[in-house]
Amino acid sequence: MGGVGKSELAVQYGRRHLAETYRGGVVWLAGERAGFELLSFCPIDVFPTVNFSQLGDLREQLAFCWAHWPAIEVPPESVLLIFDDVTDYAAQVKPCLPSDGRFRVLVTTRERLQGIDRLDLAVLKPLAAIRLLTLWIGRDRVCQEARIARDLLKWLGYLPLAIELVGSLLAIEPDLTIAKLFDQLKTERLRHEAIEPIEVAFNVSWQRLSDAAKQMAMGLSVFASAPIPWELVERTIAGCKLDDTPKPERKRDKLRRWLKREAPPTVKQWCLLLDEKARRQARRELERLHLLDRVSEERYGLHPLIREFFAVKLAARSEATDWRRSFARVMTAIAEEIPQTVTISQQAELKEAIVHLAAATEYSDLLSDADWDWPFVGLARFYKAQSLFSEAETYSQQCLDRSEIRFGADHPDTATSLNNLAGLYESQGKYESAEPLYQRALDIYERQLGADHPLTASSLNNLAVLYCYQARWGEAERLLVRALLIRAQKLGEAHPDTQGSFQSLTNLIQYAIKQNRTAELSEHPLTQHLLTQLRQQ
To answer: In the Cβ-directed half-sphere of 350, how many Cα atoms lie within 13 Å?
Structure first.
């Protein structure tokens, strides 16, 4: 990929081996101009007495250079030819290849060339990245902000060019802390002055992509920086097609465009990815240029900065909303399948999708009112099942915050989010934190839906269970009686919820009898009737 250090590695290899291995010289040639560069160099510096215009075409002139390359010793010394940044091996390198065995050829390219010895360069390891940053700003400065430095390097994806750009900026600004620069980068991202050249480097590869590959690249940016199961990509593309029903433009719209001198609306390009063969070809293009990496079978990954680059491209396109909405719908369907209690085997199955589900929360505002909260709910369930309560609380709180923004503080959907967060606190024994949330949810249901609504009964039941955990039998009993009466009236006595309320009230009275605390119970006829029955039993 661009910025990984191909040219720098070639430079260092050439310099290290110049004195002994390649005593005949090291020749550096720009890939796209290699033949012309060589022929502008040789007539002056190597063959000053030869009239190259009489030697025929480019191939014949190059053949003369290889055949008459000067040798100081016998046998002749080896010569290294470095073709840098090759974009078309067949056109740029193959016509220039010498037949003489003393010449060695080294090519740097973003493509995965086949049929020749190849060394694929990856990004740096974390320790090597730290060492590179240390070369720029010194050990003391790195150690002072060691944790922030590690986070910054991870955010940069351990890309050598990015590390050098950031390191050089920190070196010329000694008062700029790593933490402050990191905050700026997270805000400005690729627009920040320190890493603007990264975008230029990536654009070289971008310009070589077909329209279909560009569409796929932009779509991949909605996923998280983690291995992507290709099935999710296929489902996201399918979802985009559903939203791509063209609508005829009305005469009034055409007139409005004419008055404002606007261009006609562009036709969306999803058709480029409709065909399975086209999708495979687009994926191969991205892989060939190292813009997409195959992690394992049907699993692919994007470098963090390449993902950011694609996201910038997508943000400028009209179809950005379609990609994001379709991705959010695909992940919401997965979230809806996450049960209240997640088994160990289910956790293993979901682990790969969870990070992408977290990314989908950014697009919850594009989902319908019935589905928008499922990504948050699914994540909270997943982490709660593993006793990762901090993560579960984060997503439950985010769900509540988004609900208040979307519907308002007194909406029943907000009350549902309050109940979910309260239930999480209750499961941790944080009863003091759960109680005000349950009470606020109950107040919303009573005011917005009515005192006898089934959701009001559910909220009464939730608060009653909390009081039971706190051994507040009298308060719990009064709430359970209310919930039971509402459910019996609205749902019927045979309904499972009604039966559940009846069983909860019965259990509470049994506990009160065992603890000799029946005096705390109310005089309600239903309570007294059950109390008499249970005492007789």
So the answer is: 27
Strands 299-301 and 293-296: antiparallel
* pLDDT score recorded for residue 255: 54
- Whether the Cβ atoms of residue 453 and residue 490 lie closer than 8 Å to each other: yes
| Confidence at residue 193, expressed as pLDDT on a 0 to 100 scale | 87
- What does the alpha-carbon distance between residue 429 and residue 505 come to, in Å, rounded to a whole number? 22
From residue 6, alpha-carbon distances to 84, 161, 348 in Å are 9, 10, 38
Of 11, 40, 37, 36, nearest to 26 by C-alpha is 11
Q: Which residue has the higher pLDDT, 480 or 245?
A: 480
Cβ-contact 469, 431 below 8 angstroms: yes
Q: What is the pLDDT of residues 410-438, one digit of tens each?
A: 999 999 999 999 999 999 999 999 999 99
- Per the CB < 8 A criterion, the answer to whether 422 and 434 are in contact is yes
Q: Are strands 293-296 and 103-109 parallel, antiparallel or unpaired?
A: unpaired
pLDDT at residue number 105 = 93
How far CA 308 is from CA of 63, 240, 305, 350, 408, in Å, comes to: 46, 21, 5, 25, 33
Write the single-letter amino acid at 498: T
Q: Is the pLDDT of residue 471 over 60?
A: yes
Q: Which residues pair with 83 in a beta bridge?
A: 29, 107
Which residue(s) pair with 86 in the sheet?
A: 109
Structure tokens at 151: 């986070």
317-357 pLDDT tens trace: 888 998 999 999 999 999 999 998 888 899 888 999 999 99
Whether 104 contacts 25, CB under 8 Å? no
pLDDT reported for residue 262: 54
What ranges make up the beta strands (E) of 264-390?
293-296, 299-301
List the beta bridge partners of residue 79.
103
Q: How far apart are CA 466 and CA 278, in angstroms?
A: 57
C-alpha pair distances (Å), 102 with each of 28, 33, 280, 473:
16, 23, 41, 94
- Where on the phi/psi map is residue 261: left (φ > 0), alpha (ψ -120 to 50), or beta? left
pLDDT, mean of residues 151-177: 94
> Among 198, 230, 196, which Cα is nearest to 216's?
230
pTM, rounded to two decimals: 0.80
Query: Could you tell me which CATH number the domain at 336-536 has?
Result: 1.25.40.10
The label of the residue with tokens 């687009």 reads 282
Q: Name the nearest CA neighbour of 269 among 336, 322, 201, 200.
A: 322
Pairing of strands 79-86, 26-30: parallel
Helix-helix angle 344-360:374-385, to 10 degrees: 140
Amino acid at 137: I
Report the alpha-carbon distance of residue 139 to residue 130 in Å, rounded.
9
Average pLDDT of the chain is: 89
Backbone conformation region of residue 387, classed left if phi is above 0, alpha if psi is from -120 to 50, else beta: left
3-class DSSP assignment, residue 533:
helix
| % of residues, the chain, pLDDT over 70 | 93
